[in-house]
Amino acid sequence: xxxxxxxxxxxxxxxxxIASTTKPYRTGRPELDGFLHEExxxxxxxxxxxxxxxADIPRPxxxxxxxxxxxxxGDRRGPALALQNVELSHNxxxxxxxxxxxxxxxWLTNNYIHADLSAYNVLYWQGQISIIDFPQAIDPRFNxxxxxxxxxxxxNICHYIAxxxxxxDGYRIARxxxxxxxxxxx
Length: 186
Ligand SMILES: Nc1ncnc2c1ncn2[C@@H]1O[C@H](COP(=O)(O)OP(=O)(O)O)[C@@H](O)[C@H]1O
Ligand SMILES: [Mg+2]
Description:
- By secondary structure, the protein is of the alpha+beta class.
- The chain has a domain at about 80-180: Transferase(Phosphotransferase), domain 1 (Orthogonal Bundle).
- Helix content is about 35%, strand content about 15%.
- It is globular and about 45 Å long.
- The structure holds adenosine-5'-diphosphate and magnesium ion.
- Magnesium ion binds near residues 120, 121 and 133.
């Protein structure tokens, strides 16, 4: 991760939003597109129980064909740090791990696997985490590598928390979750 400002910052509007123009954020997914449309038109409260309003992600504000405008996490000095570059206090580690696993499960329940989840794609701001960088998310119902990708996502997080002495078996967690997904138990 380069320490400099990402290119996307040239399009920051005020300090509250960041436009992710460095990379097109085309979802091609009607659910998310519908959600963003709602966000644009009526605001977050209109979104109901949809997965993205429950997930710990920056709040999406608007979109065009090739870009998404989302909540900016950070301040005028720069963006929030990635979890990878943060020194967590001891009592934050387990809750954050659990929160990440809850998100992974929530996405899987709604037929998404992030597929690039790691401590680099989790922002930490004012004691809260937000997961970013979803363009490569896959649909586990149709992707033959779904279990491998899910396992890699979870193992990356387990690897990260191991630096704090918390040992979790990512492979096993992924297998169990996958089993529940396949048995429609999520
Ligand atoms: N919502 C956001 N608020 C603040 N900074 C962000 C936000 N989204 C991305 N960034 C910044 O941009 C960097 C790269 O974003 P990311 O979506 O991971 O793209 P990629 O890894 O593909 O370059 C992040 O590490 C962070 O510094
Ligand atoms: Mg990234």
